[in-house]
Write a structure and sequence with these properties.
The protein is of the alpha+beta class. Helices cover 25% and strands 9% of the residues.
């Protein structure tokens, strides 16, 4: 028995050991036969896909199939914003120019207790009528008669009315008709303006009150109501 064990051990020691070597393909080998150069440069199309001899599924060593880039949209044409409306300030109205007639040129004086025009009064009304006829901006005239405080209030009211009517009639005679009887009024002695001393004698007082024995021609312009 002992001899048999020794013989077996010697046989195993003398038997050569053979190692089976199995070639393992690299894990990264591509069995789908993608075409490439000897430097492993893969042959690809313009879109990035591999050129293969068998099939194509877009997941081999060439990577996922590249989609062509989306076209860049052209920018919208520039549209200039609409200009803001220009608001023009209203033009200022030109200044109104009236035909100016001084107060003295349109005031007619009378003698005490009378309603007859004097020569000076007629001459003044001639010039006034000519000015009024040429003035386009005068709508009409109002005629106001006055009397001084001498005499009774009733007689002075009547006297001032007659004086106003005489002036209106003279203007009509000289061709100016833009007057109306309704616009003719008399104020009598209620609006006396002369400031005369009560101690004056009658003749002196009559001379002092000359500014109250008058007719005023008041001008009404077109722009007035």
């Amino acid at each position: 028995m002992m001899m048999r064990i020794l013989a077996t051990t010697t046989l195993l020691a003398l038997t050569p050991i053979f190692i089976l070597t199995v070639a393992v393909a690299p894990a990264h080998a591509d069995p789908r036969e993608v075409l490439g150069s000897k430097y492993d440069h893969k042959v690809q199309t313009k879109t990035g896909s591999c050129v293969r001899t068998k099939w194509q599924d877009g997941s081999d060593v060439c990577g996922v199939k590249k989609e062509p880039p989306a076209p860049i949209p052209e920018p919208a044409p520039y549209v200039a914003p609409a200009p803001k409306p220009v608001v023009l300030a209203p033009r200022p109205l030109p200044p109104v120019r009236h035909t100016i007639i001084k107060e003295e040129a349109r005031t007619i004086y009378f003698d005490s207790g009378k309603s007859v025009l004097t020569k000076g009064g007629e001459k003044k009304l001639d010039h006034l009528a000519a000015t009024l006829k040429e003035a386009d901006d005068i709508q009409r005239v109002d005629i106001v008669g006055y009397a001084d405080p001498m005499g009774t209030s009733k007689s002075n009211q009547t006297l001032s009315e007659k004086r106003a009517e005489v002036v209106e009639g003279y203007l009509h005679k000289r061709g100016y008709l833009k007057t109306a009887v309704a616009k003719t009024r008399a104020v009598g002695d209620k609006e006396a303006s002369a400031n005369c001393s009560k101690k004056l004698k009658r003749a002196k007082k009559i001379d002092c009150l000359v500014t109250d024995r008058k007719v005023e021609v008041q001008v009404v312009y077109e722009t007035e109501q």
